[in-house]
Amino acid sequence: MSGELFAWGFDKENTGILGLGDEVCVQDPKEIKFTESPKILYVDTGSKHAGAIDDNGNIYIWGKGRHGELGVSGKNVINSPERVISCEVEHPVLIKCK
Fold first, then answer.
1. Residue closest to 13 by CA, chosen among 64, 58, 61, 56
2. Mean pLDDT of 42-61
3. How far apart (Å, rounded) are the C-alpha atoms in residues 28 and 30?
4. DSSP labels for the chain?
5. In terms of Cα–Cα distance, which of 4, 8, 70 is closest to 40?
6. Which end of the chain is more exposed for a tag (fewer CB within 10 A), N or C?
7. Which residue has the higher pLDDT, 83 or 92?
8. What integer is the mean pLDDT of 52-65?
9. N- to C-terminal Cα distance for the chain?
10. Mean pLDDT of 20-42
11. Sheet harboring 59-64: ordered strands across?
12. What pTM value is reported for the model?
């Protein structure tokens, strides 16, 4: 298992849910780019946002969140995965988006 993550679909509300930057209409699977090239172990999505955990326990988030869903103060939309938590001692084992 390589730990790469792919997305495709139509983001009609331009929420960033695809995690592919400004792209909103993708017909074929396209790799979601992370700045650190992590091995993704877990991923979950809500209706307008998504999150992932890599093999080092780092948590990444992207999409739209007006009520703190993104866990990043002052940002309502993140179009590409952004690391929000870096875990050095204990690793999270589950992420859940609603």
1. 64
2. 88
3. 6
4. -----EEEEE-TT---TT-STT--EEEEEEEPP-TT---EEEEEE-SSEEEEEETT--EEEEEE-SSSTT--TT-SEEEEEEEEE--SSS--------
5. 4
6. N
7. 83
8. 88
9. 27
10. 90
11. 40-45, 49-54, 59-64, 77-85
12. 0.82
CA distances from 3 to 31, 34, 42, 47, 56 (A): 11, 11, 9, 23, 12
List the structure tokens of 40.
Answer: 């993704």
Instruction: Please give the average per-residue pLDDT across 5-16, as a whole number.
Output: 92
Which of 15-19, 29-33, 65-69, 80-84 shows the lowest mean pLDDT across its residues? 65-69
* Residue for token pair 């988006």: 97
